[in-house]
Write a structure and sequence with these properties.
RT_dom; 19 strands; V-type proton ATPase subunit B 2; 6-stranded mixed β-sheet; about 600 residues; 20 helices; transport; alpha/beta; Rossmann fold
Length: about 600
């Protein structure tokens, strides 16, 4: 009997009179969107589970004594909800015609079948501890909206949870009333189906990604024939003491300014023996959508100290430009140690945040590592006002991980086995570079890709080239000739270069010098190919000038020491030194006014 002291037998005994009276009452509630205030109070009776310590609060099951009249009203709403919505067939709890015993039987059958076929089967058992009492109310309303429940019924259900209070009944006395602001009503006629709707929605992604997902009310079983279906494997998981709480939110990562100078694994956990991060915020790893009208066009050049980049492929602050590498560059432990040691030797470690997903780390973790790194970069750039350079290496390994996960899920493959959505997936990473109006910081992104068999038409570099704003091409032949950095300028491109150079930003001759270097180098390559066919004796004096330029360009301009940096003015001066190999008449890409100023003497700043 509930707090109103009206037993259910009263309504049963009144017969048709009760039906007429209740119909009028329920119509009034439906029109007013408000139930009687007396129904908002309940009494909680703790029932001991007969296990473990009698003084432990978690060893009791709470049953609420509520108004029986309210339960009849809940039955009406539940009946209409079941007609308007549907719950996945994977849910065996609280569903008419289904039972948890049936689900247990199916799991055992599945295990026997895989055992007979001698195949691997991976199962994860998840117990949502105290799930009834811990479901946030906003998750309930979100799940109802996702199931397209009419706003009228959501309002009626919200009213059932507004200003509710309860007291606890002990063997001696009832406690004072206190408010309940989280969880479902225990003992409610509507709660089981509400819980099924919530579970159906919060596990929707899992149901789509995992071959088999079975729901037993608040218990979940994930079944997969591959370990990639489980985030970090099942090793070490104790299904008796492992609990999971669904919050209805996407994966978030803690961010803080203190992350500078720290090293993390691919999941964002510190691995440098330092203290845990005290987060200043928790941010969605997928990032926030940037209004295109709020983006600021990149117009500030970043000086790298590398002549081939600064002069011929200038990078603007906020640009996304990949490095296409012909040499394999998998991030193994040796590579990770190289980056770490280089940062420490140059004294820049305190300004660096490293996220490492190594070859022996979970494949599925490789999918979220760049997103966690970019979320951290967004916080440092847009909230802390810093200019952030994000280097992602190796995106080819990321694409391979995406293909592996896609194959494990038995998705329809696209070109060379990669998933058809890889273009969209890569875009969600690359498009997070840029600048925002009114924010001081920026994110410049340099993804590094390795081209299998030096094939630039491979899906990963091919799709990357469509999304990003150019590319820097690393050439194997230049590398074999000991030219460092081995950047081949002909297939390289920076689409935002024109907006970041010129008078007032670099120097007025910058664009013309770049165009002339490209033209002369391309002609020099053609002459070199012709020489291999007809011999040097058949070449004209003009052709020999181009060969001389080609040799000096690669040895003096492209090549520079590993720690040899040149500012933009030094690089432009060096370019003019090379261009003076030719008479003025052959420098067709440079206007006469610029030649008058720079050709006959050393270029001034």
């Amino acid at each position: 009997m509930g707090p109103d002291c009206i037993p259910i037998e009263v309504w049963k005994g009144l017969g048709d009179i009760a039906i007429v009276w209740l119909t009028k009452l329920f119509n009034l509630i439906f029109r007013a969107n408000k139930m009687p205030e007396e129904w908002r109070r309940s009494i909680l009776v703790p029932i001991f589970k007969n296990k473990e310590d009698v003084q432990g609060c978690t060893n009791y099951r709470g049953i609420k004594l509520m108004s029986h009249t309210m339960k009849l009203w809940e039955r009406v709403i539940e009946h209409r909800l079941r007609r308007m919505t549907s719950v996945t067939k994977n849910q065996f709890g609280f569903m008419p015609g289904r039972s948890t015993m049936e689900a247990i039987f199916l799991v055992r059958q599945l295990m026997e079948r895989y055992r007979e076929q001698k195949k691997d089967l991976h199962m994860v058992f998840i117990d949502l501890e105290k799930s009834y009492d811990k479901i946030p109310r906003n998750v309930m309303w979100w799940a109802l909206k996702k199931h397209k429940v009419p706003a009228k019924y959501i309002t009626l259900i919200k009213d059932m949870y507004d200003n509710v209070v309860t007291s606890v009944r002990t063997s001696d006395v009832d406690t004072d009333d206190f408010p309940i602001k989280i969880g479902l009503h225990q003992g409610s006629a509507l709660s089981p189906y509400l819980f099924a709707l919530v579970m159906d929605e919060v596990t929707r992604d899992i149901q789509g990604d995992i071959p088999w997902c079975m729901l037993f009310a608040d218990d979940v079983v994930l079944v997969d024939d591959s370990r990639t279906g489980v985030f970090e494997g099942t090793s070490g998981i104790d299904n008796k003491y492992t609990t999971v709480q669904f919050t209805g939110e996407v994966l978030k990562t803690p961010v803080s300014l203190d992350m500078l100078g720290r090293i993390f694994n691919g999941s964002g956990k510190p691995i440098d023996n330092g203290p845990p991060i005290l987060p200043e915020a928790y941010l969605d790893i997928s990032g926030s959508s940037i209004n295109p009208s709020e983006r600021t066009y990149p117009e500030e050049m970043i000086q790298t100290g590398i002549s081939t980049i600064d002069v011929m492929n200038s990078i603007a602050r906020g640009q996304k430009i990949p490095l296409f590498s012909a040499a394999a560059m998998g991030v193994n432990m040796e590579t990770a140690q190289f980056f770490k040691r280089d940062f420490e030797e140059n004294g820049s470690m305190e300004r660096v945040t490293l996220f490492l997903n190594l070859a022996n780390d979970p494949t599925i973790e490789r999918i979220i590592t760049p997103r966690i790194a970019l979320t951290t970069a967004e916080y440092l750039a847009y909230e802390c006002g810093k200019h952030v350079l994000v280097i992602l290496t190796d995106m080819s390994s990321y694409a391979d991980a995406l293909r592996e996960v896609s194959a494990a899920r038995e998705e329809v493959p696209g070109r060379r086995g990669y998933p058809g959505y890889m273009y969209t997936d890569l875009a969600t990473i690359y498009e997070r570079a840029g600048r925002i109006e009114g924010r001081k910081g920026s994110i410049t992104q340099i993804p590094i890709l390795t081209m299998p068999n030096d094939d630039i038409t491979h899906p990963t570099p091919d799709l990357t080239g469509y999304i990003t704003e150019g590319q820097i091409y690393i050439d194997r032949q230049l590398h074999n000739r000991q030219i460092y950095p081995p950047i081949n300028v002909l297939p390289s491109l920076s689409r935002l270069m024109k907006s970041a150079i010129g008078e007032g930003m670099t120097r007025r001759d910058h664009s013309d010098v770049s165009n002339q270097l490209y033209a002369n180098y391309a002609i020099g390559k053609d002459v070199q190919a012709m020489k291999a066919v007809v011999g040097e004796e058949a070449l004209s004096s003009e052709d020999l000038l181009y060969l001389e330029f080609l040799d000096k360009f690669e040895r003096k301009f492209v090549a520079q020491g590993a720690y040899d940096t040149r500012n933009i003015f030094q690089s432009l001066d060096l370019a003019w030194t090379l261009l003076r190999i030719f008479p003025r008449e052959l420098l067709h890409r440079i206007p006469a006014k610029t030649l008058d100023q720079f050709y006959s003497r050393d270029a001034s700043h």
